[in-house]
Amino acid sequence: MKLQYNLQGYLNSIQISERKHLLVEGKYDKQFFRVFLNAFISYIKVDIDTVENLNDPEILVGNRQKVEKIAEIIKFKEYASRFVGFVDREYREFDLGAVTDKLERHNQISRLVWSRGHSIENYFFDYQIIYESLLGLSSVECFDKAIKDFEKCFEKTIRIACALGLTGDEMGKSEIIRRSIHSDLFNIQNSEIVLQLEQWEDSLKKRKFTEEEALMAVNSFQSWLEKLTDVSSETVKWLCDSHSGIEIIWAVYHRCVFNNTSENYRNEADKIYKVPKDTRFQALASWLVRKAKTKESVYPYEVLDLLGG
């Protein structure tokens, strides 16, 4: 349900309710847990609430901080067992100097759980999950050829996405850098995906980056990509800013399709961008559930455990 009241109103609703309440940041978190709760604990009555529409002068901060503040308040209440909060970890407890994961697990603080990686989409950064989702969503004629190229590029794609996310965070320009990336900037050379830096620099300038800022972004990206070379793929998977990462994965697949279509059918590649984001997310979440059920994938078990308790 949508939160259309203030903080005290939300606390009151939990206090008088017989149902469990899971509070998340936004609509995709809600969509994610709707799939998981239905698959694992459908017998428990749970309301999944999003904090986006909570309007209270006491907590005029970001969505993550709102969830954390509410969780901090509720943990001392007699009805705390009916509440669970879930938030993005972002870059917390990653050592960006040594590029290491200091947690290597979900962080649970009383009734609050952090995502395992930067954000919710990191759970999808598994080639088999992406492959199965694309198989159902991508109706291009050259799928078999394109997916072979994509598989060869997959790990490097996540490293590029991770380096771009860290660049955005370092410069405080995450959203602009995210919007500056599109499939035309990628090239496949000797079965390896490459971000064409001169073209990316031009793309940044079109989004009002100065010459100096664009050069700084390129240098920062190259530095981060070099640092990530010797970092385990597991750490990179969880460290990557998955909001931009999932878009970069789609852009690279688009490039693989484009490269495998004849000149007269290049618009075939654009079909992948016509898949609604909600549909794409649902497919990814559904395939993650299938792997989670056979213990082949990491998922936020702690949330399900707290709701089931």
Quick recap:
The chain has 309 residues and is an alpha/beta fold. Helices cover 52% and strands 10% of the residues.
Helix/strand/pairing class, anyone?
alpha/beta
Gap between N and C termini? 22 Å
Strand order of the largest sheet: 2-1-3-7-6
Number of helices: 12
Question: Could you report the average pLDDT, rounded to the nearest whole number?
Answer: 93
Biggest sheet details: 5 strands, mixed
Element order, helices and strands? HEHEHEEEEEHHHEEHHHHHH
Number of strands: 9
**Approximate strand percentage:** 5-15%
Spans where pLDDT lies below 50 across 5 or more residues = none
Overall geometry comes to globular
Helix content: 40-55%
Oligomer: single chain
Tell me the radius of gyration. Answer: 21 Å
List its traits.
309 residues, alpha/beta, five-stranded mixed β-sheet, two-stranded antiparallel sheet, 12 helices, 9 strands, 52% helix
What does this structure look like?
The structure is a single chain. Strand 1 (20-24), helix 2 and strand 2 (46-50) form a beta-alpha-beta unit. With 309 residues, the protein is an alpha/beta fold. Helix 5 packs across helix 9, helix 5 (143-171) packs antiparallel against helix 10 (242-259) and helix 7 crosses helix 8 (211-228). It is globular. The chain contains twelve helices and nine strands. Helices cover 52% and strands 10% of the residues. The strands form three sheets. The protein has a five-stranded mixed sheet with strand order 2-1-3-7-6, sandwiched between helices. A two-stranded antiparallel ribbon has the order 4-5. The longest helix has 29 residues, at 143-171. The mean pLDDT is 93.
